[in-house]
What does this fold into?
Amino acid sequence: MNNCFILKGTICHTPSLGRLEIHENAYTVCMDGICEGIFDEVPPEFRGLRMIDCTGDLVIPGMTDLHIHAPQYSYIGTGMDYELLEWLDNRTFPAENCYRDTKYAEAAYAVFAEKMKNSATTRAVIFGTIHRESTLILMDLMEKSGLVTLVGKVNMDRNAPSYLLEPDAESAAEDTRRFLCEVQERRYVRTKPIITPRFVISCSDALMEELGTIAAEKKLPVQSHLSENPDEIEFVKQLSPESRFYGDAYDRCGLFGRQSPCVMAHCVHSTEEEAQRIRDNGVYIAHCPASNMNLASGIAPIRKYLDMGIHVGLGTDVGAGHTVSVFRTVTEAIQVSKLYKRLVDPGAKALTFAESFYLATKGGGSFFGRVGSFEKGCEFDAVVLDDSRELLCGSEDSESRLERAFYLGIDRTGIIRKFAAGIETELYNE
Amino acid sequence: MNNCFILKGTICHTPSLGRLEIHENAYTVCMDGICEGIFDEVPPEFRGLRMIDCTGDLVIPGMTDLHIHAPQYSYIGTGMDYELLEWLDNRTFPAENCYRDTKYAEAAYAVFAEKMKNSATTRAVIFGTIHRESTLILMDLMEKSGLVTLVGKVNMDRNAPSYLLEPDAESAAEDTRRFLCEVQERRYVRTKPIITPRFVISCSDALMEELGTIAAEKKLPVQSHLSENPDEIEFVKQLSPESRFYGDAYDRCGLFGRQSPCVMAHCVHSTEEEAQRIRDNGVYIAHCPASNMNLASGIAPIRKYLDMGIHVGLGTDVGAGHTVSVFRTVTEAIQVSKLYKRLVDPGAKALTFAESFYLATKGGGSFFGRVGSFEKGCEFDAVVLDDSRELLCGSEDSESRLERAFYLGIDRTGIIRKFAAGIETELYNE
It folds into this structure.
């Protein structure tokens, strides 16, 4: 097998929130895709395995991107003067409509897949569009990308332009079932489907109930958006007056973590009651700080969620976020937590680098199982960074080097090797 | 002369705040370093001039960085878990101490100058350290960099480790006068000195008075820091109880725009009275959003300052900011203005892309005179961007392309030509 080997380097990971461990000149071992731990010397039982010597380079777990919209890469970094609902109408919906054309989807998704492949991301939870065939094209490309991903065909049957709506709940459910069959036929190894109601605004109760049934039946995870923007939340209140809070509208339909794993993007404005339900149901929060700035949504109270014991990971939320770089998201999560402390709640301690690093690795990675650190038994996801071009004085300690690698965004040029679930990706860097 | 030529391309600039003009397939003319305006066709009097044909590329004014610390590039992106005063003690002061060694300064400033040269920045207002010789080395390098800059030898005589203090106000003033003589002897064309009290905390009244006298005598501009962080402001209150507000401590010593141009970094927490004095004295504000996030300072109320008619430009504030990219600062200024609106003052309209673009060009550029647009009579500062690698669908309008160039940070790889005051820089890109 290709995926038994030893990797040597400056190994950095966070086995728990904020506990950054750095092992200089250390070894980690991958056996059939599973990590055997970190060692100062190669244990006898692994001697003879292929040695990948990256002495001096930083070795970190792959990044997990818990929330990204593949079709939105095509208009990334434009239309940023809008807020959420007008941004959807003016940018997102017209752009997503292009994906009814599979030729367009092939070209645009190829660009997206190439970007993801060359990023530090090894795991991603991805939105497609409502289009079944195009979403299968996306999955084909992700399967080849080297990443391990969950990809959703989006469902929506109301409150969007008619060109982007499924005709009704039944036919949407039928199309989704057909999509799931076709996925199964393709026998992907690294690419799995995820049930994806866009958000309550664009999904009728009937549609959400159908999706809840499918998720339960097929034991599939669920992704959606939650409590992102005040106008959005107000609209949900009108649409679902029987729900106690926004997230309750999902929960009533079996789409909120009770029966299958669930990740909700944003949670900027969750009420106390919603936060408690999130925790009680084991729902993951995908924290997307760039998006929340760009769409003027606000700042999610991540410190509070962590203190409550809620699972939190990071999301780039392309295209409301303007880069696929989770490195950037790590620094942005720290930055906005500092502003939150300064402007909203002086008692909410800012995130440290080590904490944000954890969110990007084990925090979000655990949505995929044992993923995101080099502890024994974890799936082997690793990124090797050459930061030598940025070693300005030659005397930096490894912790400073690691922090700088994130702040300077050396994932754009400094990734030299990348492994996801033990398999190495061939890289092309900028 | 080398600096008479025609430049053809997609010419973008903001002659006034928020008024973005894009001229497709247009021409701009540089005569002896001065811009003749933008033309749809080359006017007869300029025919025969050398034509630089960048058809299809984006042509923008050079960026002005109104606040950057050259010595801090050496530890950029590290120690980011600190707030201002502890960050100074733990990171900045020990690092700046290295510059007493001119060999170190030569090596470290060479890296900085190379970064600046390859950035989109054509104008910068720069802090050195207290060290006269090292600051001259920095100026030598900046003179060769192609940028037009103002560089300050820093003054400080209190409240810092003794290794980084000048012994007293008189000797500091003497050393500064000597520095200014030596600068004059070097006959720089593009590099001028700027009086640089670090901030009130580290400058005694006596020192500030000396500096005020020198600034008036030599007709030199002034740079410093103002109202960045609550702890800092509290400390200034104790140190200067006779001042009505932080900025008044500068004003009492002739260092606040009355007698010579003045730029103050940050102004995150300026009182109403301070803001009025800033406006009345014509003081420039260098808005440094990344720094203000990284050091948990807060968000400067830029919309208010603009509405008051205050001059505002952007600063990267390396090393509290973690990149020399003013492109990035443009997007961050927009992002934090959105958070300010959401979290602090719903009445404060967020900055648009066109407004933030203006701040980075004419807004800050005007500190250097007629700089920052392609209007007739402006000094000719231009950057040409090749964004073809990012044209995803091939059908983007130029305004979207421009916005995306900033959000995607194509200044890292896409700058193909750069001119400052009419002189072209030879570039090396990542």
Notes: The mean pLDDT of chain B is 96.
